[in-house]
């Protein structure tokens, strides 16, 4: 089964359809003929190591880059980034915070809203609503440069939600955050997906993030799609259980569909071993031959 088949819209209306997308920079191929679909209301993770092509893909999907080949469709309509209705459809959170440090939290949202043609009481109400949703109401008059890293990240996300997009793109949303802040951000993203009726498309190189958050995961490595599906489907592809076999030099892994088979193999070995459930890290290692960076 191809990645495109594995990532059909899974009985949901298709919101994003990507076919044959390719982009090069000189002789370097950054995205190599990728195809996949995202269903309406999904929390979708694009997982891969640094340099795999994740940011290039998100830039192609949001119109910051033009593809060399292939196409992107939203709700079946060919994507033209020059059309205002498409820009209204999507919200974008870049990998690095691009707030105006001198402006307050509310002023950063105000400028963004005006760029989308929002004015008057409607804009002020949306600013209040988005700051409240992001738990930043008490920081509305604080300059963005004085906010903590986690608060800055939430403000960038609140800004992207201001015009009420149907799809939210986030490029490495938790990079640079400490583990506690990262888990708080996961809860925030779940709320966006569930309470804002918003499809969430995020890129990440944190395997535990994709495993904890995503309805479906697409794995990319060296510009090519490796595999895709729900976290459980991906684990089942290589085996639901792993037997770690320890020796003097390294650890070898053997995969089994059922635990009894792993137990039977364990009894045959005269060395240190461990049985555990398969993780997405194991899937990546099994299918690419290397660990995630």
The main β sheet shows up as:
6 strands, mixed
CATH class of one domain reads Alpha Beta
Sequence of strands across the biggest β-sheet: 6-7-8-3-9-10
Low-confidence parts lasting 5 or more residues at pLDDT below 50? none
**SSE pattern, N- to C-terminal:** HEEEHEEHEHHHEHEHEEHEEHEH
Look at the helices and sheets and give the structural class: alpha/beta
Helix content: 25-40%
CATH superfamily of one domain: P-loop containing nucleotide triphosphate hydrolases
> Would you identify the CATH architecture of one domain?
3-Layer(aba) Sandwich
- Tell me how many strands there are: 13
Termini Cα gap: 27 Å
Family: Belongs to the ABC transporter superfamily.
Membrane topology: Multi-pass membrane protein
GO cellular component, one term: membrane
InterPro entries: AAA+_ATPase, ABC_transporter-like_ATP-bd, ABC_transporter-like_CS, ABC_transporter_ATP-binding, P-loop_NTPase
What labels would you give this structure?
alpha/beta, 28% strand, 11 helices, Rossmann fold, 293 residues, ABC-2 type transport system ATP-binding protein, single chain, 4-stranded antiparallel β-sheet, 6-stranded mixed β-sheet
Topology:
Elements: H1 3-6, E1 14-25, E2 28-39, E3 43-47, H2 54-61, E4 69-74, E5 77-78, H3 84-89, E6 90-93, H4 105-115, H5 120-133, H6 149-161, E7 167-171, H7 179-195, E8 199-204, H8 207-213, E9 216-221, E10 224-229, H9 231-238, E11 241-246, E12 251-256, H10 259-267, E13 272-277, H11 280-288
Parallel strand pairs: 3-8, 3-9, 6-7, 7-8
Antiparallel strand pairs: 1-2, 1-4, 4-5, 9-10, 11-12, 11-13
Keywords: ATP-binding, Membrane, Nodulation, Nucleotide-binding, Transmembrane, Transmembrane helix, Transport
Subcellular location: Membrane
Family: Belongs to the ABC transporter superfamily.
